[in-house]
Amino acid sequence: MSSSSSPVHADVVTKRLVLRPWTRSEATAVLDGTWSSHWADDFPSEGDRVVAGLFEQYPDWLGPYGHRLVIERDSGLVVGSIGLFWPPSEGVLEIGYGIVASRRGRGYAPEATKALADFALTLPDVHTVSADVELSNPASVRVLEKAGFRRWTTGENVVKFRISNPDRDLR
Predict the structure, then answer these.
(1) What is the average per-residue pLDDT within 126-145?
(2) pLDDT tens digits for range 82-95
(3) Domains held by the chain: number
(4) Residue 47's domain spans which residues?
(5) Partners of 115 in the β-ladder
(6) CATH code for position 121
(7) Does residue 6 carry a pLDDT above 60?
(8) Which of 24, 55, 66, 116 is most buried, by the most CB atoms less than 10 A from its CB?
(9) Which helix (H) or strand (E) holds 83?
(10) What is the mean pLDDT of the chain?
(11) Which residues fall within 8 angstroms of residue 133, CB to CB, at 6 or more apart?
């Protein structure tokens, strides 16, 4: 799926970060435990290993609409990952993210989350980006709030957040 108005193959670039799609060789290296000099010392995290292990089951996650590595522009090092759980369901696309411990507290997670959500809201068939956060994870709640997401519903153990393109939100 592509759109002539979307920079589908371009990296998403912010003031301090580059969000670029994973390569199959990077996923293999994460799964094999082969460390790269282009990674922060504490990359990959357990969450990154889980995502890398799911690329065979969800090959679209390796494409331009899927999961991306979070690269610190100053150092050129991979400091986390962020992803869109493609394809959208009824116009809604879920996002997930993680920044390695050594780079937390710098605002990278909200910066990357806002940038990727903004990108996602330009894609065909997407009007809303959502995220579920466990109530026991207040840091992730703050990330989503800083990225412009709003609380949608609260369950017993989970808070659901979303951000929508008001021009395309069908609900």
Answers:
(1) 96
(2) 999 999 999 999 99
(3) 1
(4) 12-131
(5) none
(6) 3.40.630.30
(7) no
(8) 116
(9) strand 78-84
(10) 91
(11) 140, 141, 144, 158, 159, 161
